[in-house]
Design a protein that fits this description.
Blueprint (H helix, E strand, L loop, with lengths): L1 H7 L3 E5 L2 E5 L12 E2 L4 E5 L3 E5 L6 E7 L12 E7 L2 E3 L13 E8 L1 E7 L2 E3 L6 E4 L15 E6 L2 E3 L6 E3 L2 E7 L2 E3 L10 E3 L8 E7 L2 E3 L6 E4 L6 E7 L2 E3 L7 E6 L6 E4 L2 E3 L4 E6 L3 E4 L3
Parallel strand pairs: 1-4, 2-5, 3-6, 4-7, 5-8, 6-9, 7-10, 8-11, 9-12, 10-13, 11-14, 12-15, 13-16, 14-17, 15-18, 16-19, 17-20, 18-21, 19-22, 20-23, 21-24, 22-25, 23-26, 24-27, 25-28
């Protein structure tokens, strides 16, 4: 209700004091249910010690906090814009979730069909699925397109760790900056990646991604996996200035690039070392790696 009121009044800052807030994620992922729904022009600022925690449940698909609307929701695509989250912790329910539920689509933060999103100085942990997930359709089964993918997203100065599947997944997006984060210890179910870029909808691509100055460490899978084996394409990805180490205890890679049919992926001036198996695995016709130590 507070987010709705601030947005309806034209937007502004909304402060969340310290404390643990149990978030009911049992509702369907629509505009009005299924976790905290961010709205246009609202800037949610959580104090140190403020925790948004998913309530224990057996739901296959959820988001503790969601930016944007699903492609099957009513309303214009990308009708939500200019939103931010800073401070505090967003915590999933991997320790209390029903282990017999087969889906891995329980996310701490879900970003879909919106413009101009900032996620800064936040701890993101314990998701049943992914810590931060960017895609075009909210897992509703709608046909995702480039017109429904999130655009202009910045993730910076965050600690993203201990999520069950991936710490960050980019399924479809345009213009994403991931800078100066601590991304570590994805474990629990494959692919266990620090960052996974994997478009899986025809016509919903991943374009213009900047991954810079991050520590990406101790993920059971690859520190970073970039593959367009699915229908979408990956175009113009820059990976620069990162420290990628101690990854791959289960799947054996520091950085894995596979079957790129889009345009270039540039891996420049990173420190990639002490990973299990190979530090860098290339199987991409249009990938270029330069000066990876």
């Amino acid at each position: 209700a507070a987010i709705d009121a601030v947005s309806a009044a034209g937007g502004g800052d909304l402060h969340g004091p310290a404390g643990t807030y149990l978030i009911d994620v049992s509702g369907a992922l629509t505009q009005t249910s299924g976790g905290v729904q961010m709205k246009s022009n609202v800037h949610l600022k959580l104090a140190e010690g403020a925790i948004f925690k998913a309530s224990g449940n057996a739901k296959e698909v959820y988001a503790v906090l969601r930016f944007g609307i699903g492609a099957l929701d009513t309303g214009d695509h990308r009708s939500r814009s200019n939103m931010s989250l800073s401070g505090g912790m967003i915590q999933g329910n991997r320790d209390t979730h029903d282990a017999f539920v087969s889906s891995n689509a329980g996310m701490c933060i879900w970003v879909t069909n919106c413009l101009n999103v900032r996620i800064n100085d936040v701890e993101v942990t314990d998701a049943w699925g992914d810590g931060i997930y960017l895609d075009a359709n909210d897992n509703t089964g709608a046909i995702a397109t480039n017109s429904t993918r999130p655009a202009d997203v910045n993730i910076s100065n965050c600690r993203i760790y201990g999520n069950r599947r991936n710490n960050i997944s980019i399924i479809s997006a345009l213009g994403v900056s991931i800078d100066n984060n601590d991304i570590r210890e994805a474990d629990g179910t494959s692919p266990y990646a620090g960052i996974d870029i994997e478009p899986d909808f025809t016509g919903a691509d991943v374009d213009d991604i900047r991954i810079t100055n991050n520590l990406i460490a101790a993920n059971l899978g690859a520190g970073m996996e970039i593959t367009d084996t699915s229908p979408g394409q990956i175009n113009d990805v820059l990976v620069s200035g990162n420290d990628i180490r101690d990854n791959g205890a289960t799947l054996g890679y520091g950085v894995k690039i596979a079957r790129l049919d889009g345009n270039s992926v540039r891996i420049v001036n990173n420190k990639i070392e002490l990973n299990y198996g190979d530090n860098v695995v290339l199987n991409g016709r249009k990938a270029v790696v330069v000066n990876a130590e």
